[in-house]
Design a protein that fits this description.
By secondary structure, the protein is of the alpha/beta class. It has 19 helices and 12 strands. The longest helix has 16 residues.
Length: about 450
C-alpha cells in the first residue's frame, strides 16, 4: 500500500465512521506500515488537505466528472479528491506522478473504475488553467469548507465577515506551538538551540513561555530538550490558563478532566512548590499516557485517579484551593488542527455536550474550598457550551462569582466584557474559552 492508497482508504473509513481521523490514520498505518517518514508525511498531508478543502475540491470536480459526485463509489470520490488536492495544493509533485500514483492507490479495483479515475484526472491535467480559474471563481460560501449549520451558528455569534475569516483561518495549517518548562531551560536558550539546528522558531506573542515553529514536519522528540522534559506541546491559547492560577497560595489543587496531561503539566509549573496536585480522568489509556508525560517533564508527584469526576466527588471528601475543569466539548475551536471535526460534528450534539459540561461543573462545585477558584475551559467556539453553561451554573450557585485574571500585553484584548477569555484562530491561536469562578 502506497501513500495515496493509505490516504484514500483513510478518507473512506473516516467519512463512513465519523471516527477521529488521527485514530483512523494511525490504525491503518499499524496494519499497512509505510517504509519511511516521507511516505507517512505525504499520506497525512493528503488526508488533512482533502478535509480542509473538501467543498472546493467537490465544486471543481463537478465540472470534470460526468457522473454526479453522490453517485460515485466512496473510493472513487476520495481518489479524485486526493488527486485534485495534489494538483492544486502540492505543486512540487509532477502531474503525471499525481495521476499514476493516485490510480495505483486504488489497489484491486475493477479496470473500468481505474480508467474512470484516470480519465477524470488526466482531463484536469490537460486543463489546469481552467481548473485554477474554476477554483478562483467559486462562490464565497464554497471556499469556506465548513458545513452550512456551523457557518450559520458562527454568523449568528460573530457576524458574517468574522465567520468568513474564521473559516479561512481553519483551512490553513497552524504552526507547532510549545510551552517551555521554565524549571528545565529558558526560552531564549531553547530558541538558540533551534537556530543551531536550522529550525526557525520564535517567541509566542501571548504566552511568556510559548515558542512557535512554522512548517515543522519532523518528529517532536527530535527537538532539543524533549527527553529532558524541556517543553511540551501546547497551543498558546491553552497556555493562557497560567494567569488564572498564578499567585494562588499553597494548598490542594485538582485537574478534574486531565486527558493527556498538558494542563496538569502547566499547573505543575506555575503552582507553588508546596502545593499538591491531583488529576482525574476516566480513561485508563489516556491516564497511562498522562503518567508518561508527567515523568518526562519531571513533574512533582501527582495523585492520579482513573474515574469520572462525579464518582471521585462522591468518594473523596477533600476540598481544593483550585479546581480546573477542562470539559469534554465539540472541539470546534481546534478545527485547524483536526479538520475532520467540522464534518464529524452535528448541530444537535451541542446541547447534549452542554448538558454533560454542566453536570461536570455541578460535580466540581462542592470540591472547591471557601475562597477557592473553579476554572472552566473548553476548546469550543459555541456559546451553547461556553457562556450558556456558565450562566446555567451561576443560576443555581450564587456563591460563585466571575473574576477574570489580570493579563499583561496583547492577551488583555482577548478578555470579554463579561470577564471571559476567548481566543480565535483569527488571533493565530486555537479557539479557546476560559471562565474563572471564585467561591465567595
Amino acid at each position: 500500500m502506497n501513500s495515496r492508497a493509505l490516504a484514500i482508504h483513510c478518507l473512506v473509513v473516516q467519512e463512513q465512521s465519523r471516527e477521529p481521523v488521527d485514530q483512523v490514520l494511525a490504525a491503518l498505518h499499524d496494519q499497512h506500515p509505510l517504509p519511511d517518514d516521507r511516505d507517512r508525511q505525504l499520506a497525512m498531508a493528503l488526508v488533512y488537505g482533502v478535509l480542509r478543502h473538501r467543498q472546493e475540491l467537490d465544486a471543481v470536480l463537478l465540472n470534470y466528472s460526468k457522473t454526479a459526485l453522490p453517485k460515485l463509489r466512496p473510493v472513487v470520490l476520495q481518489a479524485l479528491r486526493c488527486g485534485l488536492a495534489q494538483l492544486l495544493f502540492m505543486d512540487r509533485i509532477p502531474p503525471s506522478a499525481v495521476v499514476n500514483e493516485t490510480v495505483q492507490g486504488l489497489g484491486r479495483q475493477p479496470k473500468w473504475l481505474k480508467g474512470f479515475v484516470n480519465g477524470v484526472l488526466r482531463a484536469m491535467v490537460r486543463d489546469m488553467e481552467g481548473v485554477r480559474h474554476c477554483l478562483a471563481t467559486l462562490a464565497p460560501e464554497k471556499k469556506l469548507n465548513h458545513p452550512g449549520w456551523l457557518v450559520a451558528l458562527w454568523e449568528d455569534q460573530f457576524g458574517v465577515e468574522p465567520t468568513r475569516a474564521l473559516c479561512l483561518a481553519n483551512n490553513s495549517l497552524p504552526p507547532l506551538s510549545l510551552r517551555i518548562n521554565p524549571h528545565r531551560q529558558s526560552r531564549a536558550a531553547f530558541l538558540d538551540q533551534l537556530k543551531a539546528r536550522g529550525i526557525s522558531g520564535q517567541a509566542g506573542r501571548y504566552g511568556d513561555q510559548a515558542v512557535v515553529i512554522h512548517d515543522f514536519h519532523g518528529r517532536i522528540d527530535s527537538l532539543p530538550g524533549y527527553q529532558e522534559g524541556g517543553f511540551h506541546v501546547q497551543d498558546e491559547a491553552a497556555q493562557l490558563l497560567a494567569p488564572f492560577f498564578e499567585g494562588l497560595p499553597s494548598g490542594a489543587y485538582l485537574d478534574a478532566c486531565a486527558g493527556l496531561g498538558g494542563k496538569s503539566i502547566l499547573l505543575d509549573q506555575i503552582l507553588p512548590a508546596a502545593a499538591s496536585l491531583t488529576a482525574v480522568d476516566p480513561h485508563a489509556g489516556r491516564l497511562s499516557l498522562l503518567r508518561a508525560n508527567l515523568e518526562r517533564c519531571r513533574c512533582r508527584p501527582i495523585s492520579l485517579h482513573t474515574t469520572t469526576l462525579q464518582d471521585f466527588a462522591r468518594e473523596h471528601g477533600e476540598r481544593f484551593r483550585g479546581v480546573l475543569v477542562d470539559a469534554p466539548c465539540s472541539g470546534l475551536g481546534v478545527i485547524g488542527r483536526q479538520p475532520d471535526i467540522r464534518w464529524n460534528r452535528r448541530e444537535q450534539e451541542l446541547a447534549r455536550l452542554a448538558a454533560t459540561q454542566l453536570e461536570i461543573l455541578l460535580a466540581a462545585a462542592p470540591l472547591v474550598d471557601a475562597g477557592g477558584v473553579l476554572v472552566y475551559c473548553t476548546c469550543s467556539l459555541s456559546t451553547i457550551e461556553n457562556e450558556g453553561v456558565i450562566a446555567a451554573f451561576l443560576q443555581t450557585h450564587p456563591a460563585f462569582a466571575i473574576l477574570p485574571p489580570r493579563f499583561c500585553g496583547p492577551a488583555q484584548e482577548l478578555v470579554s466584557k463579561q470577564g471571559f477569555l476567548r481566543t480565535l484562530p483569527t488571533d493565530g491561536l486555537d479557539g479557546f474559552f476560559v471562565a474563572r469562578l471564585v467561591k465567595t
